[in-house]
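Section: Multi-chain targets

For targets with more than one molecule, the full set of components is provided together so that the structure can be written out for the assembly as a whole rather than chain by chain. Components appear in the order listed by the source. The example entry contains four components.
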Amino acid sequence: MRGYFLRKLGIYAVTFVVAVTVDWAIPHLMPGNPVLTLVGRIQVQDPRVAQNLYHHYMRAFNLDLPLWKQYWYFWVSLFHGDLGTSILQFPTPVTTIILHALPYTLGLLIPATLLSWYAGNKFGALAARRKTLDNTLLPFGYALTATPYMWLAILLSWVFAVVWHVFPVGFAYDPTATREWSWAFVSSLAYHWFLPFLSLFLVAFGGWAIGMRNLIIYELEADYAHYLEALGAPQRLIRKYAFRNALLPQITGLALTLGAVIAGALVTEIVFSYPGLGYQIYRAITNEDYFVIQGIFLFIIIGVLIANFVVDIVYIIVDPRTRIGMQGSGS
Amino acid sequence: MSLLVDDLKVYYRTLAGDVRALDGVTFSVADGEIMGLAGESGCGKSTLGNSLIRFDTRMRYVGGHATLDGTELPIWDTLGMNAFRFKKISIVPQYAMSALNPTRKIGDLTADLLTAHGVSPKQELPELRRRLELVGLDPAVLGMFPMELSGGMKQRTVMVLSTLLDPSLLIADEITSALDVSTQKAVGETLVGFRDRGFVKSLMVITHDLSILYQIADTILIMYAGRLAEKASGETIISSPRHPYTRLLISSLPEVGIRYAEKKLTGIPGTPPGLLNPPQGCRFRDRCPLASKKCLEAPPFVEVEDEHFVACWEEAA
Amino acid sequence: MPVLKLDRVSKVYKVGAFGGKELLAVRDVSFDVQPGEVISLIGESGSGKSTIGKMILRLSSVTRGTITWDGVDIAGLKRGSLKTYYRTTQGVFQDPFSSYNPIFKADRVFNLIRQSFFPGVPRAEWQSKVAASLEAVSLDPVQVLNKFPHQLSGGQLQRLLIARALLLDIKFLVADEIISMLDASTRIDVLNLLGELKERGLGIVFITHDLSLGNYISDRTIILRRGAIVEMGATEKVFGNPQHPYTKMLLASVPQLHSKWEELDPELKAQITELSASQSDEQHYADAGRLVLPSDGDGSELVEVEKDHLAAQVRTS
Amino acid sequence: MSTSGKLAEPPDLVSELEPPVEPDAKHMSGFRETLHFALRNRKLVFGLSVTLTMLLFAIVGPFLAQHGPLDYGGVLSSAPTTKDGYWFGTTMQGQDVFAQFVTGLRLLFIVGALGGGIAAGIGMVVGFTAGYRGGVVDDILNMITNVVLVIPTFALLLVIAAYLQVRGILTEAVFIGLTSWPWAARALRAQTFSLVSRDFVDMARMSGRSSRQIIFKEIAPNMSSYLFMMFILLFGGAVLIAATLDFIGLGPSGTISLGMMMQLSVQNAALQLGLWWWFVPPGLAIMAVVGSLYVMNVGLDEVFNPKLREL
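Its structure, encoded as tokens over all components, is:
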């Protein structure tokens, strides 16, 4: 058991180091002095601000130090929670910007991921080997999973917000409302949250439904399913077993598709001007606010690693085979 | 009479047409009888075993009847058969090692199965434990997952589970083929023990290995190319077979003591016919040294002596 | 005359994550094969018999000890010299369907030999060479050439592989369970084919789990248990006067056609039951993947019992 | 990106003990049998025809367009019309949506083929090597695969693309290919493992074949259907990643892609103004191509895997 966790943690540690190194290396790999390029591309009227920025960047990049020292300081500031300063919202630290945006993204991402996983698996299991359901639901599933996240968001926004006026076009809450824990504010939050959530949910739902349907069909062809049939077990029992077994790879899939769902969340936020990480990153990209981009990247990495670890733990709890296998090799 | 099979025909659907894997077989298995069913691969023996309990998706019922303890089995009806499965007729499949759901504890699986058949798991538990012990398993296996058991242990578990409700007929499909000689013997003896203790009334043991059948079976039924060739007591089949196929087959089997240098055995030339468009008449005709014109007509499976059935014109005459 | 000689050959497998554990699959096995003789390696699963075959064929490395061919250690063979080795030593394996690449035609195995070993041979000459070796294994070219593996029977496929080996100038053939997947009516003919090859001067290592087959074809017999030799010698001596209890147990467990298991003498029976019980426990651990290093008890030196007959000493504890 | 159409085990080519190996039945040779099932498979036929139609459109379309994709000069925000060849209408700046659409469609196929192809190539090299060599080589490759698998590659691409001064369609495709291979490598490694244990590999060794020959001439041909299906999934994934990157503002410079069309339409409030002809076609095209590829993939799976065939 411990060996297994240590190995997993080892992989995550390596991943983290690789990601941080890449994050640090990318600006260095680009031709020319990145600071000059950066400052040159920022359109600031006030020469004092430009001067200020230049010095700030020189310090942040530590360009005058040997490479290994620059790398070392990158880690040091990282562990101090210092991800640099935003240019666009100078002098707000990147960490502050991210921490403000994070709740909105998580509020979309977590419910959309978990609910789509749950509902998709239920539907997929229902569709498997039931001709009519399979033939009607499956095309929808494929269409959904092939839909770019932003396009569905655009369509939903256009139809529900612009054409029908049922939902707001964007933003996280009514700008006229005061930010407080009042009923009015919370309902405004929920009202604005719904369309982006639905959009994320639907695309992910298609993928899970199809995955489950295919897995179940394979499970129903497994030897244990045939044996149960031969012993006259009702289809209900066999399908229950098949569903449970098919869920296991779907749990692993949850970790594997996380990157894609995050990408989906980012672009969905852009469509709805929803003030999460995606919206921030979009602003940062269009304004060349590099520290924000790099900072968000590191945050996403950390989030994904944590999520992977949680999935690992869940998997061990759910699948007796890994549990026993580990005990066997550990003794 | 425990099992009566009458002119049973089951084909396999393929692109090119029907493969006549089981083309009209008629035989019976008596109460308490262990019947061995032997033949080469593709002769239809497993098809026969499967068709009595569970049709796979490619199998097609063409005709005939199977009667167990006086009741006709609705073998063509997947759902209708559920009333008989497990309680009246059961199977230890070829894939016994992978027959248990890997993610369910064996005890829970058994309980699920019993509940589904309207039997109280609690009530069966003492008997289940007793039988596990009888086959040399610690009842603690009920709390284990299949992966914690060895292949042999899984097979014994399946044997106990399949026979828990004392079915009238148990089909054991190639259960010794993947085993070492020492374990083969133990499994064979376990099967006989099940019959002797009344866990099963009758047994149908399907295998390609005649010498195993000689050890454990009361009677042996030889199949060839989708049809029956010969049925008699094990002793008779081995020492005085009457169908030319059986005779040639037995004379081709080496035994400890027979050596190439001293006595060179010979096989049967040729191969069995394809069953997609099987030849008219006796299907062994092409390989048979005794074949004559008469063999263009299929020989009936008739009783030539008491409890000795043969499908050959030479013998029927 | 070249001799294939194994001298205290051992094989250790690294298992577990990053090779943390060791499994001793073959222990200090020594024997030699002369041209013109068939030597049987007999053992149950886990006896290391197939590993020995693979080591002889250089498909698996030797951990300790040496295998020499005419005095040359085969471990040192590199590209060119390895090719020369394969000109003289070839193998045929258990599963005919696995031995052919399923997406190509079966006779592609001949083409591979031609590409590697006879690139300059003209087409006509090559075809007559193929025809000659097909005749040697009694195959009709019309029936077997230009067909996919699934269109041929297991027996035909195994013969084709032997014919493939005969295209080369082979002196030794490793035949690993080559007939265990064939049907009873055709397997004996393939076995007889090995006898004919022996008469042509080939040295054959015949690997099998079936004692009756080993007894039938081989001049000398080696009984393996858990990677080590327990008994070896002239076939008639090993089978006629078995010394090691394991050999006795195997002999008693083999299902025979004319004597039944029950007819065993009771003393031997008791001894055997004990041994086969411990046997199945080991099987359990091996199957469950819990690796148990073989105990030291069986690695004991072989002692000459009579001329041309050695057996491992049994510790009385 | 989505691996939802789970790749199945390739068909088990070892025939079962029963029903019999039927020489007559198999007279229909492997290829013809596959073709028979392929033509009967509605999913495959549907997926293939949609994909090919779109491909044809991508090839021919730019020649039909009456205006350059980035040219201004049309009526601003015009709905689709037959006048002046603005069949798909114009953008808010008066650009030809049809010209942009077909250009984007062409880029879609380029990114998909190139990105998917590179990913498939890396996946094959890593998967084959790990599966065939085993041991330490496998341990190391496995580690690398796992690391790349865990890294949210989209976020990584985002940072890289943001720093690139000039972004080309080829660079985009190459970077997508470099980051999306891990699951393919994993799947191929497992396949290779199971094939290496087959006896025909040993037979080839004893016929004097080198490791490279064995991998490419014995093992790989056995996986051709599998490799093709894998490429399809990688293709679809690359298209979706590219569209997302483009939408976030990191698309290729000097041209226009479907993702960029969507970005510009959102940026210019085309939704609020109801310029549906601007943002509906690009997304629809992506969905049609990727969706039909996925459907085609299921169809192929059914064709190649006898277990899923319906008689």
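Chain A touches chain D through 71 residues (CB under 8 Å).
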